[in-house]
Input
Amino acid sequence: MGHTSLDKIKALQKNPANVRNLCILAHVDHGKTTLADSLVASNGIISSRLAGKLRYLDSREDEQIRGITMKSSAISLHYASGEKDYLINLIDSPGHVDFSSEVSTAVRLCDGAIVIVDAVEGVCPQTQAVLRQAWLENIRPVLVINKIDRLIMELKLTSQEAYTHLQKILEQVNAVTGSLFTSKVLEDRAVKEERAEEDKEEGDIKPAECPGSEQVYDWSAGLEDSDDSQLYFSPDQGNVVFASAIDGWGFSIQQFAQIHSQRMGIRAEVLLKTLWGDFYLNAKAKKIMKGAHAKGKKPLFVQLVLDNIWSLYDAVVTRRDKEKIEKMMMSLGVKVMTRDSRHSDPKVLLSAICSQWLPVSQAVLFMVCDKLPSPLDMTSERIERLMSVGARRFHSLPLQTQELKTAFMQCSSDDTAPVIVFVSKMFMVDAKALPQNKQRPLTQEEMAQRRELARQRHTERLAAIQQTESGEGNAQSGSTTPATTPGQMQGLPLKAKPEEEEEKETFVAFARVYSGVVRRGQKVFVMGPKYDPAQGLACLPPVPHLACCTMDSLYLLMGRELEELEEVPSGNVLGIGGLEECVLKSATLSTSPALPPFIPLNFEATPIVRVAIEPKHPSEMPKLVRGMRLLNQADPCAEVLIQETGEHVLVTAGEVHLQRCLDDLRERFAKIEISASKPIIPFRETVIRPPKVDMVNEDLGKQQKVAVIHQVKESDTLHLDPSGLVTLTTPNRQATVGVRAIPLPEEVTLLLEGSADLIRTLEQAGQAQREGRTLDMSTWTLDALMVLKSRLEVLLQGRKWRNAVDRIWAFGPRRYGPNILLNSVEGYQRPSVWHCLEREKGEKEGGAKAEASAIRDFDNSVVSGFQLATLSGPMCEEPLMGVCFSVERWDMNFPTQRTHLDSVTEKDSNSLDASVSESPGEGAMAGASHGRLVDCYGPFSGQLIAAVKEACRHAFQAKPQRLMAAMYTCEIMATAEVLGRVYGVLGKREGRVLQEEMKEGTEMFIIKAVLPVAESFGFADEIRKRTSGLASPQLVFSHWEVISSDPSWVPTTEEEYLHFGEKADSANQALKYMNGVRRRKGLYVEEKIVEHGEKQRTLSKNK
Amino acid sequence: MSIFTPTNQIRLTNVAVVRMKKGGKRFEIACYKNKVMSWRSGAEKDLDEVLQTSSVFNNVSKGQVAKKDDLSKAFGTDDLTEICKEILAKGELQVSDKERQSQLETSFRDIATIVAEKCVNLETKRPYTVNLIERAMKDIHYSVKANKSTKQQALEVIRQLKDSIEIQRAHMRLRLVLPAKEGKRLKEKLKPLLKVVESEDFDDQLEMVCLVDPGCFREIDELIRCETKGKGSLEVLSLKDVEEGDERLE
Output
C-alpha cells in the first residue's frame, strides 16, 4: 500500500461511520509500539523491513534509549477493506505504571482499544490496570495475543502445549473482565438502590429507574440479569488476534476459516465456530467432532493453524531446510526477494514470508474495523457518564444540556451542530516540526511574557464575558443554538494576534471532536473543570470557569509529524494549536455554553514521589519557576508547588516519570542545570506527661534511678524547682518571670490546629480592641468563636485547668498556633483573648481602654517572647505543638512605680526600693525611668522578650520532651499474594497498618496504614519493586504524631542497663530524626567526630 | 636511604598534644587526634578514648615525663587522672584536621541557616532554602571566619549575596502609635527608615502599620521613645513578612 495522501485522509475524515479511534494498551514491554510500527508500515510511512525495530511513535530520545514509551502519541492511518475505506486514528500509549496518566489521556479520546497480552507472560499488573481503565471509560476492547514466536523459539512448546497455554491466557484475561463486570454490577445496584430511595423521597420516580427499587434485596438478580456474553474475548467472536508483531505476522480465526473452508470443503461458518475449542477433525468421516481433549485428538486449532506455523518456524529458523522452504513458499503463494532468502539471519527470511502470508496489520486492522465501534455508535451510557461531573446525575443537568446528548449521538458534521471538543492533554512540539514554518522561534522570555499577558487578557476576558452576558441578559437564555452563540462571542475582545514572536516550542492540544466541525480560527468556549452549565445558561454576571479562545491552527497528528488542516469534522482525533493560554492540562471546548465539562480524567496512579528542585546556580531561580510552570502544563500527571519553606517541589507518579520530568526541565522547559533532592521534612516539638514505665516496660516508681538526666545548669539568674517551674531574671535584674510547661491534651491540640483561621480573626479583633477600634466580625464568626471557647472549656477540665480558658493570654506561634500562653500570675488581671467577644456583646467598661493602653508596653513583650519560644523549640529549632506555658510569676521591680503594675509589684518594689517614694510627678518620672531603662543590656522590652523566651525554653526542657512526626495515611491496593511483602515494606519504614479489607467483587485488598513522612522518600518505588507492581500506594498527609521514644534517652534504671547496656546505641528513631534536622540546620550535634582514636602508624616513606 | 631521613625516627602520627603552662612549667598530655573537642563538648565520656597514656609530660615529642614534684607543686595533687582532666579542660590545644573541618562546616551551615531564616526572595516573598543559600555562598567564595560570630557573618553574607541573587532581608511589620502633636514632625524623621507604609490613620493619634528593615528596628525604637517621651509606642506585628502556605504553580 502506498503512502496515503493528505487529501485522502481529509476525505475519509468526513465519514464518521468509517472512522475508528482506538488506542493500544498493554503492560510494559508487551509490544504495543512494535505492533503500532507494523500498522504504520502498512501505510507506507515506514519501511516494513524496519517495522518493529524503528519504534516510529517513540519520538523522544530517551524513549528510544530506554526502549519504553513515555507518552501517548497519535497517528492517522488509512485502511481499505474490500471496497470500504477506513480511517484509523491510532493512539499508542505507554505501558509503564508511571505513565498511566498518559494512558488515561489516550483512552478518553478513543472508542475502542487494542489490548495486547504477551503470550509468555500472560496477564500482568498493568494489563489489569488498562483493562480497568478501558472499562471505566466505557470503551470496547479487542485482544491481541502477541509474541507467539516466543512460545516456539524460547519455550520450545509443542503446538498442542501452546494451544493449552493460549487457552489459559484467554481465561485469565476474561477473568479480569469478569471481575470488573461483577464489581460494576454490584456497584450499579448499590447506586440504584440509593437513587431509588432518593427518588422515592423526592416523589418523582423515573420509569427507567423503577426496576432498581425492586431489586433491592435480590442478591442474585443483578448478576444474572445483566448480559455479559458480549464482554468476553473469544476467537470465534472475532475479537482475538494471535500475532507476533516482531516477525510481522498475525491472524484471526476468520482468515484460517476462509483458507481451510475452500481446501476442505467445510463451510466457513462451521469452521469459524469450531476452529477454537474442543473440536477435532475426524479424517475418515470428514466431520468435525466434539471432545478432542477427552479422546486425545488434536484440536482443530492445533491441526489447522498452529501446526502450519510451527512447521514454518521449524523449516526456516531451526532447520534451515532450503528445499522445504521453497515448497512451503510455493504452497502459500508467497514470493520472497532473493536478497531476503539469502540473508544469513533466518529471521529476515521468516518475517519476509510471514508478512506476506499473514500480515499482522491486515489481521488487526480488519478486526478493529469490524469489531470496534465508530464514533457514531457511541453508547448513550458513555455520554451520560462523560457529562455528569462529580456526583451529579445526568438527569439533573439543565434541559439544554441534555439536548446536547443527541448531538453526541449523531456525531454530525453539519455546520449547525454544536462543536464539542475534548482536550485530554497538552504536549510540546518543536516549532520546526510545525507545518507552518513561517513561525519564527520564540525565546523563553517572550513565551513567558506572552503567557503573562495572556493570563491578564484571560482575566479581562472573563470580566468581559460576564459583562456581555449580563448585558445580553435573557435574550438568549432560552436557546443555545450555535446561531446565537457567535453573537455572544462577538462581545469578547479578540485575542491579539501573535506579533513577530519567535518560538522554539509550542504547545499543541491533543484533542478529539465529538460533534460539529472544527475550523481554523474558530472561537470556542473553554470550560474549566468546575464550570457549571446551569450558571452559564442563567447568564448571571459571574460565570466562573468559562473562557473563550480561538483555535489558531489545526493539525493532523502523524506521530512525530504534524499536518496542517483547515477543518476537522466530527469524530476525529486532532491537534489544536494556540490554546496554551487558555487550557492548562485538559479542557472541554464547545460553541455551546450549555455543555458541562467532561468528567475529569481517571488516573490510575496519583503523583506521590516528591522531590525538591533547585537550580545549580541560584541566580537562575526565575528560569526554574518558568520551566516548572511549563512542565506542569505539558504533563498531565506532574504537580509542582512552592512550599512555605521556599522549596520548589515536584510531585511525580514514579521514579521513571520523575526522571523524565527532570530531563524535560533540563532540556526543554528551563534549560538550566538543576538538582533534585529529598524534600525538607517538617517536625514538631512537644512535651508529654512523665512516663510511668521505662523502656523495658518496668514500672518506674519502684526503681531507683541509677543516673540523673536533664541536668539544667543553674546560674544566678535561672532557677529551676523540681516541679518544673523555671524562674528567670532579666540581666538588669528588674523583672523576674516564672514559667511552667504543661502538655495540652491531644484533643485540644487538634481543635486549636483545626481552628487556626478562627483564632487569627480573634487575634486581629483583640488587637483592634486594644487600640480602641472595633473590627467588625460577622455573627457567624462570633458564633464560631463562642463554640470554640465552649469546646475548649469542655476539653480542658480538671483541677489543673480551672478557669484556664478564661486565662488564656495568647496562642502561638504566629499568634494562632496550637500552643497556649496561660496567665497564672496571682493578682495580675489582664483581659483574656476572649475579651473582645464579650465586648462585642456590649459590656463596655469605661476605664478599660486607658488601662489597656497602659499595660501594652510590657504585656506585649511577654507575648513576643512566647511567640519566639514556640516558633523554634530547643530540640531542633522546629515549631512547638500542644504545649501550654503557664506564667506563674511576673515581678517587676523598677526604681519607680508603674501604675499598671501596682497590683503585682507593689510589695516587691516597696521592699526593695524603700528609698524611692511614690512620686507625684508621673510624667516627669516616666521620662526618667525610660532614660534608665536603656541600660547596657539594651532596651528593657527586648530583655524581657529574651527572658520570657529563655524561661519558656527551659521550662520546656524540664519536662519529658518528644518529637512529633508528620504522618501520611497510606492506602494500598494489593492482591492477596503480595500482601506479605507490602507488610514487610511498611514495617521496615516504621509504618503501622490500621485496617485491611477486601474490595467487594474483586480479589484486591485495601490496606490502610500510617507512615511517617520522613520515611516516605522512595517508598512508592520500593513497594512497587517488591510487589512487582501489584500494589500501588497513595499517600496523603494526615496528622502529627508523637514519636514515643525520647531523643535524649539514656539508660537510667538497672533494668535498662541490663537490657540496653551502658551505651544504649541501639537505634533511637527520635534521636536519628533530631540529629538529622540539627545537622541540616548547622546546629550542634552531640556526636563524636571519630569513634575510636586511630593507631600510631609508622610511616617512613610518606611521612 | 639518605642520612637526612633516618628510619628510626619516630613520628607521632596520631597524637594531639594539649599544653598548659602552670607554675612556670610547661605540662603536656598526649591525646588521640580529633578526640579532645568531643571530650570538651561532652560527647565523649570515656577518658581512655581521649588519652593515649595517663602520664603527664613536659614535652611529649621528646618523651620527657613531668616530675612528680613539679606536678604536685603546680596542681596541688599528684592524682594523674585529675591533672589530665584539668589540662584537657583548660589547656591549649592544636585543633586537628577533622575537628576543624567539622567546625567550619557547622558554622558554614549555621550561617546559611541564619541567612535563609532572615531573608526572602525579592520576587516571590518566599524564603530561600538553606541548600540554595549554601550554594550561593560557595559561588561567591565565602570563607568562614572561625573567630567571628555566625550571626555577624550572616549579615555580611546577606550583603554580599545581594549582588548575585534576588535576596532581601525579610521585613518586619510594625505598628507605630504616635501622639497627635508629635505625629507630623516624627513622621518626617521616620520616613527614611520605613520601607513600606501599609496603613496610616490620623485621628486623635497617628497610627501607622509599616514594613521596616530589621536593622532599623532599634533606631526607630529609640527615636520613638526619646522623641515622644514614652507616649508613643511601637509594636511588632510580625518579625518576618513572608508568604504563608503552599502555592500551586499553574
